[in-house]
UniProtKB/TrEMBL annotation:
Official protein name in the record: GNAT family N-acetyltransferase
Coiled-coil intervals: none
CDD domains per UniProt: NAT_SF (cd04301)
Listed InterPro entries: Acyl_CoA_acyltransferase (IPR016181), GNAT_dom (IPR000182)
Stretches assigned to the N-acetyltransferase domain: 13-177
Pfam entry (one): Acetyltransf_3
Organism: Hallella faecis
Length: 179
């Protein structure tokens, strides 16, 4: 992987709550078969199911144990989404996942979104750590998480099955500042 100098910084993006207008984008991302092997999805979602998800999500991580935020550029265009999931308030940690739309990749949007998530996780949710599970065959996510200061803590052998082969997953962790 070549070193890449991002052109987008923290102040160039914002994070916002999921809106009904995001249905088409959510439908596109959730039904992108190429993304299924990096997550837990293994079936297509209907527009109806995603509409119900948007309508029923409280936006309260303490209720839903997850929160999805849309990543927007300065023009208000949605460039991706970032999730906190498997939220555990007792142990003050959550898993983080991110998707940047193809046309916005390798421009720094992922790093900028991670900076926002660190601030939100620490200052608002008072989390101590964020972690990510990244497929060994996903160089873009490896570069993103390592560039965002996550440390490789271990490897989960044969963790993901793509229908033909098993793949290892790298367990990344980032400890947030102590309060």
């Amino acid at each position: 992987m070549e070193a890449h100098k991002p052109t987008v910084s923290y102040g160039d993006i914002s994070l916002r709550a999921l809106e009904p207008e995001d249905l088409d984008l959510l439908y596109q991302v959730e039904n992108d078969v190429s993304l299924w092997s990096v997550g837990v999805t293994n079936k297509p979602y209907s527009r109806y199911a995603l509409h119900e998800y948007i309508a029923s999500a409280s936006g309260d991580i303490y209720v839903d144990h997850q929160v999805r935020l849309m990543i927007c550029n300065r023009d208000g265009d949605t460039v991706g989404m970032v999730d906190l999931m498997n939220f555990n308030p007792q142990h003050r940690r959550a898993e983080v996942g991110i998707v940047i739309l193809d046309r916005y990749r390798n421009q720094g949007f992922g790093l900028a979104a991670m900076a926002h998530m660190f601030r939100y996780a620490h200052a608002t949710l008072h989390l101590h750590q964020l972690y990510a599970l990244v497929g060994e065959n996903n160089p873009y996510s490896i570069r993103l998480f390592e560039g965002a200061g996550f440390e490789k803590e271990g490897v989960l052998r044969d963790w993901i099955f793509d229908g033909d082969h098993y793949h290892d997953v790298i367990f990344y962790q980032r400890l947030l500042p102590v309060e």
